[in-house]
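Worked example

This section walks through a single chain of length 265. The input is the sequence exactly as stored; nothing has been trimmed or padded.
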Amino acid sequence: MHLKFLTPITLSLSLLCGSAFAESCDINFKYGVVIDPLHVRLLNKDTTYIQITRDKQLFISGREIILNNKQEKLLASYSKAIREQVPEIVSIAVDGVDVGLEAVNKVISGLTGENSNSHQKFQERFTDMQWRLRERFNHSDNNYFIAPQDFDDFDEIFSGEFEEEIEQIVSESLGSILMAVGEAIVNDAGDHNENRDSNFSDKMETLGKDLKVGLSTQTNALDKKVKLFCENLKQLNVLEEEIRSSIPNLNQLDLIESNIMENDM
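Given that input, the structure is written out below as tokens.
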């Protein structure tokens, strides 16, 4: 089989097995974060260290801390910023996995047809994994849980625990793709060999170009999303420093660990 027949296959599988992100974010969450409509909780070793209720009441290790107006405003800004950024973590990480899975999906549908057994089987696995990825970190509307994370590599946040299943999907998909390639060649058996190879080569080349353009657009959009997210976390880190200075009981607060500010100085 001519190697260029495999161009779109290589593109899609390499993206799924590798990284969908060129951007990284040198920021860590030191604590786990739990969000529901009433509370923002920071967990230290699975125990609630800080709880913010209705964006204005502060509890440390279960004890309420009375705040003045200035402190309440700072706490409200901090709580709301966390509420905005945690769902963004989920969105970015899921989108990164989706880009790779969609690439394989397009190759299979392009070669075997959208109604083929191979494509339908993959689509079912794809949809199931998408649902479970979101369910793992977003249990219901406005309810999220994020463990302590290093955002330098978004791929590890979600795909780590699904890595074995992703590898299995890739393996099964590769077999389906190669079978489809063989079937397509056999179906063109009425053509002369040169025309048959040329037609199939053209089809694969077109598929490869379309896939490359689509992936480039998606990954560029993801990189912009990561960059904006990282900038927002840097601002949240600045706000965290203000809170430590303003609220003595939170002078040890350190949700966000970052080397970015030091490196930029």
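What to look for: The chain has seven helices and ten strands.
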